[in-house]
Amino acid sequence: MEPPGEGGEMAAALRAAKRALRGELRQRLRALDAAEKQRQSRLLSRKVISHSKYQESKRIAIFLSMPDEIQTEEIIKDIFKQGKECFIPRYKPHSNQMDMLKLSSAEDISSLTLTSWNILQPSDDDNVREEALTSG
């Protein structure tokens, strides 16, 4: 059993460590040029696509990348090429809730709405997409 107050101190220390790690990662990402980011994205995509769990999966949830992140476009194209189902996140405003909604094709991405955080996702009134956790 922890002495009183230690749990709160540990949680605060963990939050501070996460904040510091995120800051360090942002600095490292900024230092990479576009060609290196693209090279690393291709390497990661190949690793994911060749992984046995990916190959066995029929339904895959993936994020749509932003410019400063690992690019997921190659993986998304492969998901559809292999006939798998693809689900992407939709964040609820002012909430911690996130739904994973089905994309019908790689081209379907162009129909998505850009949020205030510059994230592409299905619009809030899009109620026709299948939700990953309530189906299959």
From TrEMBL:
Task: Give this protein's Gene Ontology molecular function annotations.
Answer: 5-formyltetrahydrofolate cyclo-ligase activity; ATP binding
Q: Which Pfam families match?
A: 5-FTHF_cyc-lig (PF01812)
Q: Which EC numbers characterise this protein's activity in its record?
A: 6.3.3.2
* InterPro entries in the cross-refs: FTHF_cligase, FTHF_cligase-like_sf, NagB/RpiA_transferase-like
Query: What SUPFAM superfamilies is this protein classified in?
Result: NagB/RpiA/CoA transferase-like (SSF100950)
Q: Which domain of life is it from?
A: Eukaryota
Q: What does the record list as GO biological process?
A: folic acid-containing compound biosynthetic process; tetrahydrofolate interconversion
- What reactions does this protein catalyze? (6S)-5-formyl-5,6,7,8-tetrahydrofolate + ATP = (6R)-5,10-methenyltetrahydrofolate + ADP + phosphate
Q: Could you list this entry's UniProt keywords, alphabetically sorted.
A: ATP-binding, Ligase, Nucleotide-binding
Q: GO CC annotations?
A: mitochondrion
Per its UniProt record, what PANTHER family does this chain match? Answer: 5-FORMYLTETRAHYDROFOLATE CYCLO-LIGASE, ATPASE INHIBITOR/5-FORMYLTETRAHYDROFOLATE CYCLO-LIGASE
Q: Which family does it belong to?
A: Belongs to the 5-formyltetrahydrofolate cyclo-ligase family.
The protein, known as? 5-formyltetrahydrofolate cyclo-ligase
